[in-house]
Q: What sequence folds into this?
């Protein structure tokens, strides 16, 4: 999911602690910020720190003057076989090809475990926006494999490249593509396809599993120790330290209510990030140092899925607004079902009836309406997804947009 | 309500639009500066001013704000092309200009503005109660909401390096020079903001304009300096008969802009930049068209939407420079006045959108005939003169400091959004009740 989605789930988690809301009417502590901080922290650790300390065994540099698809494809294929032969992890990175501030030469890299092929297809020039919107026009993996079985990988990648949003007339002519073969059996934990596009990478780690297959991990430095339940435990003492020190400086003492709340809130806000990430494809390494592999996600959505992000964010904001109303000294709004019974939010029955009313009116109905709207749009209006045949349409609601 | 008053209000609003269209030609000039001048003139000629119905002056200011919010980005888009050696990436409308599609970008932005105007004039009158509840709900929590925005601005700047350094140290440095300077800009802007909030450097007569030199220094003058030193050539512009965007782009762009615009208009101390940054992430905005449309929607909702909250029954929220100036002579009392204002916004908005096509063509032709460097140089001199006139040499000194800080993001390829810590951090700390303590630690008290 996107950074803001994790940030908001962290804030929503924090808002479930009454003190985090009630402090706005008293001594105005910043407990809510700690929730947001813990929510986005795992990605901060990975993207601002962890990835720079990762070492690669093979780095491929293609340039505009030397668009060598063969070099890239063969390097990846040989790295897979090298990992199978040695039993050691082999890490490969294909560097981006930046032409100017605006334009990047792109190349699609497809690792097909069934056919034991790595295909590299040099694509058009794209801007950052084009690259980021790529997921919205991609077919699902199932549709792609079906088309590959009929036409072969290069024509399929050519179709995708021609459909993509890009700078017009920049697809190399004649086309530059290469298919490299590997021998090992593989377990691909990610999509079949990645793109050499913007920022850094893509990169992979190939490592033999216990069953003898070579496991393919995309951006292997991501979602390991930083996205674990284990590290989340440290957020409690860290929060206690921050708010305890603040309390000590202001005469409230170390073990003040804010420090004690942060002790519980920190891990939960951090774990909200870990939980939301399980909805995608990558999963994460949940209990290091006892576990070593990233889990495989539920594959319900992807980080670039507009609908997935919007709905999680909507839910987070709905939770925050509910808690602000329920935990404040006086409710700002009363819902119709609760208006029929006596009491306030301190009364469990009143609280539950209000919550049920809110869940129906402010969450279930809007989310359902949005879902139906998107389905109808996909079915009758949208024509932007690359479609190889009628059967492949609308198979993957999240689309194959990548999962960071 | 008397029909003569209504018609006079419409005329006043259209005059406001016309004046805004002239001032919007000066890149970097903010409409709140123009309103402040208007008020200075009005108070200088108080006898004439007193004879006018306050509603007419209000509608004039409303016309100024509407015209400005729809048109002001056109001039900066055509007259301030960026030099890509000072950027890690170009924004879509900047790239459109270099592809000869500046006019198309202006029209896309206009589509966003149209969506916002439809919402303000067509939908807002039916949801005043809901907006009022939302405002009441978040009102005590603004301090931590601003804190969250600041935290997100800091934590969401991801490294833009390309990971091609040969050693860990090189790759780490490639990333952290940019990130570190973003952090520096945030901290320095926060300190500058606390200083300005705690010290009256500006002569007392115009102390209410103490933020003017800071904002002109942080944003307007650096943009003009960068345009003057830019090694860029604006190609001949193509005036397309249609725009390349789908209904989905319009819907999603408008949604992003609506979330960002409403967020910034309901949250004191928040400007559209960081609000749009958060809303674009939150709504998973995608592609250049959605970015430009979203920007147009957010700007109009921020400037006009925030002002219309001042007149809205159930809300009556004074937010932003225009509302503060209007509140000096007019107090909204009835729903009738609110409906009049909604109608005035529709009229002024329609006039502004009708102007937009010709206005963009005019700016494109000016950019072809006159070197944009001279326009920016002239703009910088004009703004400096204005700062000197309103805030004396003290304001110029403050503007100089702010300008130095405002140039940092350009030279170090960081975002400009951390500069808004100048407002976010002091307002957040003051609302949390710790602004004085922090200012004291820094020696400002």
A:
């Amino acid at each position: 999911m996107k950074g803001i989605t994790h940030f908001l789930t962290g804030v929503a988690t924090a808002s479930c602690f009454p003190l985090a809301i009630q402090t706005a009417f008293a001594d105005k502590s910043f407990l809510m910020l700690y929730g947001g901080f813990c929510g986005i922290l795992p990605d901060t650790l990975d993207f601002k720190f962890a990835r720079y300390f990762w070492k690669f065994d093979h780095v491929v540099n293609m340039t505009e003057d030397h668009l060598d698809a063969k070099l890239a494809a063969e390097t990846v294929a040989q790295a897979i076989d090298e990992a199978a032969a040695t039993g050691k992890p082999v890490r490969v990175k294909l560097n981006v090809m930046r032409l100017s501030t605006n334009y990047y030469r792109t190349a699609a890299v497809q690792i097909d475990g069934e056919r034991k092929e790595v295909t590299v297809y040099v694509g058009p020039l794209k801007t950052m926006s084009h690259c980021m919107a790529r997921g919205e026009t991609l077919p699902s993996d199932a549709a792609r494999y079906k088309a590959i079985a009929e036409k072969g990988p290069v024509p399929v990648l050519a179709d995708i490249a021609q459909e993509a949003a890009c700078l017009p007339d920049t697809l190399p002519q004649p086309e530059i593509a290469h298919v490299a073969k590997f021998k090992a059996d593989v377990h691909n934990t990610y999509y079949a396809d990645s793109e050499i596009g913007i920022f850094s990478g893509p990169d992979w780690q190939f490592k033999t599993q216990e069953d003898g297959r070579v496991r393919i991990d995309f951006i292997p430095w991501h979602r390991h120790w930083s996205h674990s339940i284990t590290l989340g435990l440290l957020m409690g003492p860290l929060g206690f330290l921050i708010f305890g020190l603040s309390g000590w400086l202001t005469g409230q003492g170390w073990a003040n209510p804010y420090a004690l709340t942060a002790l519980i809130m920190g891990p939960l806000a951090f774990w909200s990030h870990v939980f939301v990430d399980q909805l995608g494809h990558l999963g994460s390494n949940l209990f290091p140092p006892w576990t070593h592999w990233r889990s495989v996600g539920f594959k319900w959505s992807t980080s670039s899925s507009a609908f997935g992000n919007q709905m999680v964010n909507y839910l987070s904001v709905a939770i925050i607004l509910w808690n602000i109303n329920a935990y404040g000294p006086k409710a700002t709004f009363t819902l119709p079902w609760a208006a029929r019974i006596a009491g306030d939010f301190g009364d469990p029955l009143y609280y539950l009836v209000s919550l049920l009313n809110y869940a129906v009116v402010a969450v279930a109905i809007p989310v359902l309406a949005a879902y139906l709207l998107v389905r109808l749009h996909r079915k009758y209006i949208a024509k932007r997804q690359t479609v190889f045949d009628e059967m492949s349409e609308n198979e993957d609601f999240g689309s194959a947009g990548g999962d960071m | 309500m008397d029909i003569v008053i209504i018609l006079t209000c419409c005329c006043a609003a259209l005059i406001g639009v016309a004046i805004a269209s002239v001032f919007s030609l000066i890149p970097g000039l903010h409409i709140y500066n123009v309103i402040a001048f208007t008020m200075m003139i009005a108070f200088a000629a108080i006898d004439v001013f007193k004879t006018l119905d306050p509603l007419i002056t209000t509608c004039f200011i409303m016309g100024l704000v509407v015209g400005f919010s729809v048109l002001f980005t056109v001039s900066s888009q055509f007259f301030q092309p960026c030099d890509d050696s000072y950027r890690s990436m170009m924004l879509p409308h900047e790239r459109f200009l270099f592809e000869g599609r500046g006019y198309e970008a202006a029209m896309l932005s206009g589509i966003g503005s149209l969506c916002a105007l439809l919402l303000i004039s067509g939908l807002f009158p039916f949801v005043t109660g809901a907006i009022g509840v939302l405002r009441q709900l978040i009102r005590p929590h603004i301090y931590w909401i601003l804190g969250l925005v600041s935290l997100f601005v800091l934590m969401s700047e991801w490294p833009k390096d390309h990971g091609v350094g040969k050693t860990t140290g090189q790759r780490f440095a490639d990333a952290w020079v940019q990130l570190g300077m973003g952090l520096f800009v945030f901290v320095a802007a926060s300190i500058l903001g606390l200083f300005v909030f705690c010290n009256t450097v500006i002569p007392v007569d115009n102390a209410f304009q103490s933020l003017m030199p800071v904002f002109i220094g942080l944003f307007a003058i650096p943009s003009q300096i960068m345009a003057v030193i830019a090694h860029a050539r604006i190609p001949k512009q193509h005036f397309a008969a249609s725009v390349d965007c789908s209904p989905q782009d319009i819907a999603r762009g408008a949604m992003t802009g609506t979330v960002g615009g409403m967020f910034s208009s309901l949250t004191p101390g928040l400007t559209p930049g960081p609000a749009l940054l958060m809303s674009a992430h939150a709504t998973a905005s995608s592609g250049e068209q959605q970015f430009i449309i979203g920007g147009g929607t957010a700007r109009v909702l921020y400037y006009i939407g925030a002002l219309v909250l001042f007149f809205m029954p159930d809300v009556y929220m004074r937010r932003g420079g225009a509302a503060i100036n209007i509140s000096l002579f007019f107090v909204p009392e009835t729903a009738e006045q609110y409906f009049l204002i909604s109608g005035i916004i529709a009229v002024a908005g329609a006039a502004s959108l009708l102007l937009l096509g010709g206005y963009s063509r005019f700016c494109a032709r000016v950019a072809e005939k006159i070197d944009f460097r001279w326009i920016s140089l002239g703009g910088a001199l004009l703004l400096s003169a204005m700062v000197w006139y309103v805030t004396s040499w003290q304001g110029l000194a403050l503007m100089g400091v702010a300008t130095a800080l405002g140039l940092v993001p350009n030279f170090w390829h960081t975002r400009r959004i951390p500069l808004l810590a100048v407002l976010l951090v002091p307002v957040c700390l003051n609302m949390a009740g710790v602004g004085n303590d922090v200012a004291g630690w820094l020696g400002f008290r």
